[in-house]
Amino acid sequence: MKLATAIMQDGERAVLARDGGAVTVQDLNRQLGTDWPERVDELIRAGKVAPLTDWLRLHPTLDAMVRPSIPAADLRFGPLYRRPGKIWGIGLNYADHAADLNERVPADFPGSFLKPATSIIGPGDAFQIPVQSQRTTVEAELGIIIGQRCRDVPRARWREVVAGFTPILDATAEDILRLNPRYLTLSKSFDTFFSFGPLLITPDEITNIETVMVSTVLNGEVRATNQVARMTYPPDFLIAFHSRVMTLEPGDIISSGTPGAVPVCHGDRVECRISGFPPLVNAVQDLKITGV
């Protein structure tokens, strides 16, 4: 299943991405008499993503049953949702990226950090370089969205607790971070420093996540790319490890690390490209120039 959040005149609504456009879950309910939650965060927190996926598998003629709500040309995506309980970021999870920064890959534990929900933007929105930073970077990552409350998840059963995967663009005020490693949270937490979407794709459509390629793209040029299989701490480890630290809850996000970050400037266009997903694209504004 491919889920997204579309920005409508009356707010943000969950949609099922289809060939040629999308069907709102609201219209699905109206036309077929179902009662699925009508926002992506509500679907996740109610534990309805997997049941909806199964229901769609039993109704392969959905496009004939429900009139598409939004043509592709009229779709405007928002972030999948705006208030996750936790956003875990993973630093230096590809050895190649660590080498680029003259850093050592964390050998004992993942280089984990938390980001605030107030940093969230969606596809097409602009990263804002803060007035405090002269060097801000953006990086593409594979996002893992938790689908159920869980604790002490065995690595072999990690997919059972996953609602889906999504592209992520994560920003860092790198010059602030380099002043002192204790400034990691500060450097990662500015407003607009986390974009995700446009699609959540459920695990049944991605049978081998290890083969997926993740690329950071700046102004149309691929600047870094790598395969999930080359992560130091792969998705199964990340879920098992963090679930031993704390309870993971529906809607929590694990941003699993980047093949490489790029410094950005006012007017740039940055993308996360992940094989099998539409690209996540955001513009860049420098608040020192715009004054906004």
Q: Any overview of this molecule?
A:
The chain has 292 residues and is α+β, with helices and mostly antiparallel strands. It has two domains: 2-74, no CATH class; 87-290, Fumarylacetoacetate hydrolase, domain 2 (Alpha-Beta Complex), CATH 3.90.850.10. Helices cover 21% and strands 33% of the residues. It contains nine helices and 18 strands. It has helices at 25-32, 40-45, 49-58, 62-65, 95-100, 174-179, 184-188, 235-245, 287-290; strands spanning 2-8, 11-18, 21-24, 70-71, 87-91, 111-115, 120-121, 126-129, 136-146, 162-173, 194-196, 200-201, 213-218, 221-227, 253-255, 261-263, 269-274, 280-286. Strands 5, 6, 7, 9, 10, 11, 15 and 16 form an eight-stranded mixed sheet that branches. A five-stranded antiparallel sheet has the order 4-3-2-1-12. Strands 8-18-17-13-14 form a five-stranded mixed sheet. A hairpin with a 2-residue loop joins strand 13 and strand 14. The protein is globular and about 55 Å long. The mean pLDDT is 93.
